[in-house]
Design goal:
single chain, mainly alpha, four-stranded antiparallel sheet, 26 helices, 6% strand, globular
Length: 703
Amino acid sequence: MGNISTNTTVPNPTPGDDPSSTPSPAMSIDKLFPALLECFGIILCGYAAGRMNIITSTQAKGLGNFVSKFALPALLFKNMVLLDFHNVIWPFLWSILVAKLCVFFIVCVLTLLVTNKESRFSKAGLYSIFATQSNDFALGYPIVEALYRNNHPEYMQYIYLVAPVSLMVLNPIGFAFCEVQKRRSEQGPQQSKLHVVGVVLLQVLRNPIVFMVVVGIASHFILGQKIPGFMEEFVDGLANSFGGAALFYLGLTMVGQLRKLTRSTVVALILLITAKLLVMPLICRGMVEVLDTGNISSLNHSSLSNYAFLYGVFPTAPSVAIYAAHYNMELQVVTSGMVISTFLSAPIMYVSAWLLTIPWMDPKPLASALQNISFNISIVSLFALVWCVAVNIMSKKIHRLPHMFTFNLFMAQLGVCVGMIAWNFVVVKDNFLGQVLTFTLLYGSLYSTYIWPGQCGSCCDSSQCLLVEEEQKWQSTDRQVARHVLLCLLLTVSLLANLSSCLWWLLSTVPGRLYLELQFFCAVVNFGQGFLCFGIFGLDKHFIILPFKKRLANLRWAHGREAAGQADVSDEIRLTCNQFLKYHKEQCVQDIVHKKKCGKRSVAETFLGSEMVQWLQTVGLASDQGEALLYGSRLLEGGVIHHITHDFGFLDDILHYRSPLKCKPALTLQGRVVKHWSLPYTSIIKKSYSEGNVSLQLYLIRR
């Protein structure tokens, strides 16, 4: 039974392969991991800033405008002026363009054939753009620079040539489909075809990328391939600011996108991600092999085909989500797919680049490396799964659907990890029975992980109960539909990869390096399922995150009680509280505050945190969810509102909040009220001050 991998064995080397005669690789793989760490580290920083509401979505739009309308045009202008057209291998450029046209055509035709008439044109246009427009500048360029800067620095200029051509040729076709769909859905008079063409051309010309590429190419010949000295520093300053700002903004745009994931979008997401991350790189590589026949150097030809494959793996650009939002079409699929494809592309790029640098396909070291990777991933994944099982049991979700099936999935994944770890020790011993039992445990558990996921049962009916019990019931019956849909999506992609690996081995006599890449990818997704489960279910919102926030809120509340109270509140919070109490409180009470039963005979006037967030945006006090959370947090810190048990801060969730005792402080001089303040208090306090013959008393008088 030898060394075991995911489902097959490593292919033997092809005749004539000789490690001593194979030239050195054309890319520097040792610099790829730091580049990936840099890119995705900055992306995660941006995501964390948006997730923790440090930067709201409205504020993020300003950064996005700077990146797309200042930094990126300056970068394009600089590189178009300095571009050396003599070193461009034009067949490679045409190969990438033809590959994109093929993928665009395939996705467009299939979408038109299988979707309903009400939305087929918008889906065809946006899905085709999704599958062909790559994140070339923010994410692709740093990867290419890390791999080819030393050996093939001329490869970096293809990024600036391929992206604009795609924008000018393919995107207008997709925009035309969207305009046709928009034209059909309008109730008023229909627009002429000439108007549709004019709108599409105007959108293309207004795109700063296209405009600046045209200006840059014209300046290339006018200025003699050199930027004038008086503007060189200015252009460099804007161009150099693009990299980090673009990646940070990409992370900001990912916040909250997976919430839009629904079961109805799963099939479309699977097909689109497969087309972008699997079909596109294969067609790009194949087109270079076919069209780049005039290349004298076989080494350069092989290097270009590998580069084409890596280029095809670049994830979808976030600008596609902007197109979807502009037309208000297919926003759920596009935004969720953009997030998933970005993070799936990282391991695919790394494994692809690593395998493409292997000069000789010796089966023994490859099989050993494959088994070592599977063993190491299984160990770490085992700990992640133990954590997920513990969370599932302690949160008491094990007896409810669909978490019951999820728990069984966790147990099957635990069996996979235990089987892989045991196989690493059993395989070296001459114990046939032990090998059979371990093999049965390993593969029985592995393929059962693809059977346990998708039909959910109905959750229990809600009934009249106390407010606190209502919150607890909502938290305990949260079925986490979006998380389960995402897990099913990722497991389906993994299943398709395993199926492709089996078919490839059966149909090809010499599978080659791409088959090895697929084998390594299958090993990662098969034995690393614990990472997926930990990322999706390990940090349970109601069992871990909210209690952690509750503890922080309690600490802040206790600290605030020890302080002088309202006197230590910042001017910004005081101003917000005064503004709300004076101008908006009555309207807020009328719109969202309701009397709810909180005991057998008691009634409380409360509202939900989610209702408050929506109301603040509706009346214009906040432009987005982030600003609404900030506004509500100020009201809570100022004492205008509080959670019914003081256990939580202000959250956009099914949590009940109320106002304290409705009272108003008054300053009295010898029994006569002389001044009022619109500040909230929760108790009646009396303070006396004496100075000379004047006696001041400060009361908190109930309204």
